[in-house]
Amino acid sequence: MRVSNVTVRKRLALVLVVGILVFFIIDVRLGYVQFMLGDFLTGKAKDSWSRNVPFEPQRGEIVDRNGVALATNISAPTVYVVPRQVDDPDATASKLAEALGMKKEKAYQHLTKKAMIERIQEGRKISHEKAKEIRALNLKGVYIAEDSKRHYPFGSYLSHVLGFAGIDNQGLMGLELFYDRQLKGKKGSVQFYADAKQQRMNNMADDYQPPVDGLDLKLTIDSKIQTIMERELDIAQAKYNPDGIIAIAMNPNNGEILAMSSRPDFDPANFRNVAPEIYNRNLPVWSTYEPGSTFKIITLAAAIEEGKVNLEKEHFHDPGFVEVAGAKLRCWKKGGHGSQTFLEVVQNSCNPGFVELGERLGKEKLFKYVKDFGFGQKTGIDLQGEGKGILFNLDRVGPVEQATTAFGQGVSVTPIQQVAAVSAAVNGGILYTPYIAKELIDPVTGEVVMKKSPQAKRRVISEGTSKEIRHALESVVAQGSGKNAFVDSYRVGGKTGTAQKAKDGRYLENNHIVSFIGFAPADDPQIVIYVAVDNPKGTVQFGGVVAAPIVGRIMEDSLRALEVKPRKGQIEKERTWLDTPMIEVPDLTGMTKQELQQQLVNLRLDVAGEGNKVVKQLPSPGVKIKEGATIRVYMND
Question: How many helices (H) and strands (E) does the chain have?
């Protein structure tokens, strides 16, 4: 059948239109792929070719308040392999295994694994000498990546507070864990390109994405005070072989922790060598126990604030015990203290006297102040694992529970709670949240990213009450049970504590936690120090005998480290025959050598200079030193 020309033209036109339409669609698609998806597809292709060798960031340093590094980093390279780039897995495995001290079979498994890139576990965080040795082998497909590991330059120093980081530089305990997100930084990498056979594409340049280092953490810790504390705890550990020791130093005016330590301790770099119950328990914030007589400060504060006692004028007779609801509660001194003022009740740490104060307050008032001072709740310190302690439920408090609480028995508290509470009692009456992290700092720019400010929770007592407490506790150290914490020329106040340890509902025999909490200067407190020694051996287990001297030595050296000047108006110490007489240093400035010989009959002289007149002396005038001590004088004309 013959087809007309018109029909042919129509069919050709249709084919042409369809052809144009198909080519248009193809052109649009090609344009879309070229211009819209080009970068995306190129990136995907590069991703399929690319291989990343990771570069770990530097973990932020932890430094004390003066910039002394407490936790830092040291370079520790890591070995990676790209299995498909290895030409001779058997020979490479032999050389790599020998260099890393691993089995050849295990190295061979890494080198033949079906993975784009493989990290050798035995080659993690190796020394630079070992990395240099492996580079010298020139093993194809074996790479050395930059890495670092955590370094604690002072060993076990501040170990429970700092905590430690794991092999992946992740915080596992202490401040390393609490501030892990801020310290860890972001990973970087070196990116190279390989073909389908995993052979390196030399015509494409490597890409380097630098890691972002973590923020530095500045603490409230003063390394000078921390060093003093660590020294004294080491001495106490050697002397008493106790089950444990706890120590805290805090600025009572803002809650800053100046030092914190405990025994047993550990080296954070080798935490795997000690039992988890040692490194997992930061005793100053974790442990709970009966406080003993240090808790009497709270009862005293409540009684003074509520106008229930006049320390100087009121008297109390102590026969050595007090009967409460059929229970006989004894004083530590057999036979009692007899008639005494309530100031002497505080000085003598007389249990029956504090039972009387508790009765005057009543259980509602007594427990209100106990809770207001922060007991039975966490302080909020920025360390994990903090305990709450245990208080009696008010509806279950009878006369006996009220009485024992008044002198620190039957309740359970943490050391940090005691430090925060006593700080409030002596700083003018304000309870602060303790804290240990001061600032987060960008290590590149030096910019302060986060700065903590003191957090006042509430006022618990008046300034007048606080002043009276300071005076009472200063008299405890000068004339009472805390004499062994006395520091000449510095006004120190404090309170002893001796608490029985309980097990299975019964008190243990000859097993006590002995403690002392002190502060200075008594007229303007700058530091509060608490020390508790758990079951000291070979000694009388009293806080005044064991813990008070430790606090006294820490206090004396810490006050000098803080450049706190000696204070006048110190209450005279009630001395025993064991005490060396103390002499106030006279002013020798301007005296001649002849006058010096006439002036100093019970002190020694160390003369410097060739002049005839004294122009300077050490110690300064007014400071009290032991009889027979040496004064250094500088002579000039």
Answer: 19, 30
Q: What does the pLDDT read at residue 436? A: 96
In one letter, which amino acid is 106?
K
pLDDT band for position 171 (cuts 50, 70, 90)? confident
Check whether 106 has a pLDDT greater than 90.
no
Instruction: Give residue 474's pLDDT.
Output: 94
**CATH for 52-192, options being 3.40.50.150, 3.90.1310.10, 3.40.50.1000, 3.30.450.40:** 3.90.1310.10
pLDDT in the model for residue 135: 87
pTM: 0.79
| pLDDT of 40 over the 80 cut | no
**Contact indicator for 474, 524 with CB cutoff of 8 Å:** no
Mean pLDDT in the chain? 86
Residue 94 has a pLDDT of: 86
Q: Give dist(CA 261, CA 249) in Å, integer.
A: 9
The C-alpha atoms of residue 339 and residue 317 are separated, in whole angstroms, by 4
Looking only at Cα atoms, what is the longest distance across the chain? 152
DSSP-assigned letters across all residues of 347-393: HHT-HHHHHHHHHHHHHHHHHHHHHHTTTTS----SSTT----B---
Q: Where are the domains of the chain?
A: 5-41, 52-192, 223-306+343-561, 582-636
Confidence class of residue 449 from pLDDT cuts 50, 70 and 90? very high
The least confident of 144-153, 275-284, 548-557 is 144-153
Please identify every residue annotated as catalytic: 293
Task: Judge whether 52-192 and 582-636 match in fold.
Answer: no
Q: Which residue in this structure is represented by tokens 């019964």? A: 506
Share of the chain residues as helix, strand and coil, in percent rounded to the nearest 5: 35, 25, 35
**HSE (CB half, 13 Å, CA atoms) of 90?**
0
Task: Give the CATH class of 223-306+343-561.
Answer: alpha beta
Q: What is the dihedral of CA 324, 330, 334, 340, to 10 degrees?
A: -70
- HEC letters along 167-232: CCCCEEEHHHHHCHHHHCCECEEEEEEECCCCCECCCCCCEEECCECCCEEEECCCHHHHHHHHHH
**50: pLDDT strictly greater than 70:** no
* Tokens found for residue 463: 């300034």
Q: Which amino acid does the sequence have at 500? A: Q
Q: What is the CATH number of domain 582-636?
A: 3.30.10.20
The terminus-to-terminus CA distance of the chain in angstroms comes to: 143
Residues 589 and 566: their CA atoms lie apart, in Å, by 19
